[in-house]
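For the sake of transparency, this paper describes our internal protein records without simplification. Because each token names a local backbone shape, the row as a whole describes the fold. One such record is reproduced below, unchanged from the form in which we store it:
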Amino acid sequence: MRKPVSDSKLKRVVALGALLLMMGFAVAGPTGLLAWSENAAALETRKAEIAKLTAQRDALRNRVVLLDPEAADPDLASELVREQLGVMREDEVVITLED
């Protein structure tokens, strides 16, 4: 006949299983050692995206300053009117450049 498993031995097995599970997550989990390089690459991608968006924001901020109704830049205002409304003077010649 078999002896019943002692309570302390069962606790040790459960503790060992929990410890092994935590070690597995530390190595292969979503924030573990194996995901470290992937997270570093994602961070670099995000930094590049932030730099690009910051440059776009600064360009738009400059454009807003130039279009201030109190002191609009005449060259920019003229360019916008010509571009959006298709307005030209009679003595102007349009030269289109292909990109």
